[in-house]
Amino acid sequence: MSEVRLRLWCRGVVQGVGFRPLVHRLAAELQLVGEVENVAGAVRLELQGERRSLELLVRRLPEALQPPGALEPLAPEWLPPLVPAPPGLRIAAASAQPLGAALVAPSLVADLAPCPTCLAELHDPANRRYRYPFISCSQCGPRYSIASAEPYARAHTSLAGFRLCALCQREFDDPGDRRFHAETIGCPTCGPQLQWQGPADCGADPLAAALALLAAGGILALQGVGGFQLLVAAGDPAAVARLRQRKQRPAKPLALLVADLEAIAPLVELSGPERLQLQHPAAPIVLLRLRPGQHQLFAGVAPGSAALGVMLPASPLHQLLAEGFGRPLVATSGNRSGEPLCLDPAEAFDRLAGIADGFLLHNRPIARRLDDSVLQVIEGRPVLLRRARGYAPQALALQAPPGTALALGGDLKSAPALARGGRVWLAPLLGDLAGPLPQQLLSEGLEQLLERHDPVLAALACDGHPGYASHQLAAVAARRLGIPLQLVQHHRAHGLAVAAEHGLQLPLLVWACDGLGYGEPAGASGHRLWGGELLWLTAAGAERWACLRPFPLPGGERAMAEPRRAALGLLAAAGPEALGHPGAAACRAAFSPGDWQLLLQAIASGCHSPLCSSTGRLFDAAASLLDLCQRSSFEGEAGLLLEGLALQAPPPLVAPMPLLPAAGLELGWLDWQPLLHSLLNAGVSPQESAACFHASLAAGLASAAAQAAGRLGATTVLLAGGCFQNRLLLERSAAALRAAGLVPRWAEQLPSNDGGLALGQLWAALADPSITK
What number of other Cβ atoms are within 10 A of residue 544's Cβ? Predict the structure, then answer.
């Protein structure tokens, strides 16, 4: 058979997962010659040989590539052979394209936890990489966090300055070695090294010094994978309290790092799917429900929560620390509350000097900040709550409409997204845009994306709130480039994000339940702060069919951090009897008598007391009335405590939530007043009240959705928005919808909170017929 030449563009998760070595091995077996090269966004194959052999290679590639690698459908291009033929097989990488802020990096793969083979070598005294904290291979190790340019190649990472020793070079060049072209290869002779900065040097062993500090109750600053982390002994209440005080994080749950699952299994309910997610190469934090009676052992780690966030080691260094300590460690972000992660030692010495007692460092620079990813398992499937290390920058597993568009999401949990060529990339979490550094990162990343995609960018999309920093950045960029700016209503975007992920076609029903989002002009509804909306999503927009009965927020945005204000607004809307009810004593006691009266006057006059239909603020009000939380130290604290309390109760009674007629709404207001009466009932325990709250709200949401679905002929209901991070609310709502004959869907690949907002904005922009694709 005569020779031909094959050109193949391989896209998907194909860089940093051993794909080029795999192609080389298969091509050598089939006696092919040519080149396999990493290029921007793909791997290019240019191979020559008998056509039958080349066709066999094309068939075998998708089967031979192991997770986390993944291939998109292949489209072979057949060309005349080169004369003379290439002399052999060559692995290459295209010239570097600097990444800069790199909100989106299509060529790159996420960071991968140590593979089983590397872990075995790490623990083998006969292996030359025994206990080497930076052991890796073509199947595992740092990727995105060390990349300075694309496509993926050692010279384009922060390992470029580490010249391989003879033994490592031999492995790198040997097609029969498992580290053949493993770009992060290294060993104790030629690779990165640990360093110690702290009160005791423990000789020449930085790891021993770190372990001694932890054993003594000290706080360790660790240079991790995507930035610094702070570690303490989880079982030392004084050390945990000291970390909270210094970090200024009084109550927000902290994650646990364990060497293996046996260390935590007696404390938590650990299902098979949860075990699989903990052992996933992404090494996320997985929220695990505590077993009954186990709330006190690590009470300072996640106070009031029904779950513990647990992760297995994300790197060999984490593995050695966790094993060496032998007990669970708290591992939390290396920053003060509200600040970004520290990235390099100089920054850590400056910003963590008053927090950490010692610093375990290394000389492999971190190229970009990546926080730990967080997920929980719902009905056996993983649901991401934070998408960062281990998942970004890989494309989402969904098919996008044609066209190229960029969406900036919101200001909370900022995570922009790019759609191009039918694929979508969601940037890793940048954080809240309240501080200058996240705004700077977003601005730099936006400029880089616009520079690369300006000629083909159809639109920029953002939230409709004019006060958002993301909105203002998008508006300026759109005017400068002369491209359309799509303003997408907040809750419509939440719903569209779920529809996009599941590949569902409009029209669709969605319950969008979150904190506060900018609604449409107030008009007949009387309020613009939304957060509990039943929407009918159509190609033209979103029709509002129902919402939670509005209530005032005395102090406006200030009420977002003070559940007592939400409770006061709820009581005032319910009337004088509720304000004076004995069950409202905890809320009244949270104010001075003078402040109570002043705020009631403000509500009565409408002064700085806007109406809202927010589910999140309803949770806040319930937590205040049950005296769980009067002032929040972090977003969602009230809801977390309410859920934790609810899980301690037997199956609850359900308070009805009727629909009240309201102008401009097909179904009207979902009335919370009966639910309020149940919260004020002094004859019911707080646990029963919290359980009743969740069950009643879920039943009310499902009942309203069922009525709308009956009129509209809908069969599916989307559950969107940050309140559905509450596992109990989500599971009860899904069960109630199924009981009504409806199919529930919710976000899984990306957060239901504002971290997934950009995907919905993209769908709105790409569906707009006024945009030329």
Answer: 22
Q: What single string gives the DSSP state of each residue in 119-187?
A: HHHHT-TTSTTTT-TT--BTTBB--GGGBSEES--GGGBTTTT-PPPHHHHHHHH-TTSTTTT-TT---
Q: What is the helix (H) or strand (E) element at residue 322, kind and residue range?
A: helix 316-325
Q: Are 733 and 726 in contact (CB under 8 A)?
A: no
The answer to whether the CB of 113 falls within 8 A of the CB of 390 is yes
773: pLDDT strictly greater than 60: no
589 Cβ contact partners less than 8 Å away, ≥ 6 residues apart: none
Phi-psi region of 454 (alpha: psi -120 to 50; beta: other; left: phi over 0): alpha
Cα 570–Cα 551–Cα 630 angle in degrees, nearest 5: 40
Nearest residue to 212 (alpha-carbon basis) of 188, 193, 233, 195: 233
Token pair recorded at residue 157: 């990472």
Distance CA 275, CA 400 (A): 31
For residues 766 and 503, give the distance between their C-alpha atoms in angstroms, rounded to a whole number: 14
* pLDDT tens sequence across 459-488: 899 999 999 999 999 999 999 988 999 999
Cα–Cα distance, 271 to 338 (Å, whole number): 33
Q: Would you call the peptide bond into 98 cis, given omega within 30 degrees of 0 as the criterion?
A: no
Q: Is the pLDDT of residue 522 over 60?
A: no
Whole-number Cα distances in Å, 710 to 513, 665, 718, 737: 21, 16, 15, 13
In sequence order, the 6+-apart residues with CB closer than 8 A to the CB of 83 are none
What are the pLDDT digits (tens) for 142-200? 999 999 998 999 999 999 999 999 999 999 999 999 999 999 999 999 999 999 999 87
Query: Which amino acid type is present at position 666?
Result: E
CA-based nearest residue to 27, from 39, 42, 43: 43
Q: How many other CB atoms are there within 10 angstroms of residue 557's CB atom?
A: 11
| CB neighbours of residue 189 within 10 Å | 12
The DSSP 8-state label assigned to residue 268 in this structure reads B
Which residues lie across from 140 on neighbouring strands? 137
The Cα 495–Cα 511 span in angstroms is 8
Residue 101 DSSP SS3? coil
Residues 6+ apart with CB under 8 A from 81: 2, 3, 4, 5, 48
Q: How far is CA 595 from CA 554, 571, 585, 698, 742, in A?
A: 11, 15, 15, 34, 46
pLDDT tens digits, one per residue of 583-621: 999 999 999 999 999 999 999 998 999 999 999 999 999
Question: d(Cα 615, Cα 696) in Å, to the nearest integer?
Answer: 13
For 498-526, letters b (16+ CB in 10 Å) and e give bbbbbebeebbbbbbbbbbbbbbeeeebe
At 205, is the secondary structure helix, strand, or coil? coil
Tokens of 418: 């790019």
User: CA–CA distance from 650 to each of 142, 500, 624, 686 (Å)?
Assistant: 46, 37, 22, 12
CA distance linking residue 749 with residue 746, whole number of Å: 10
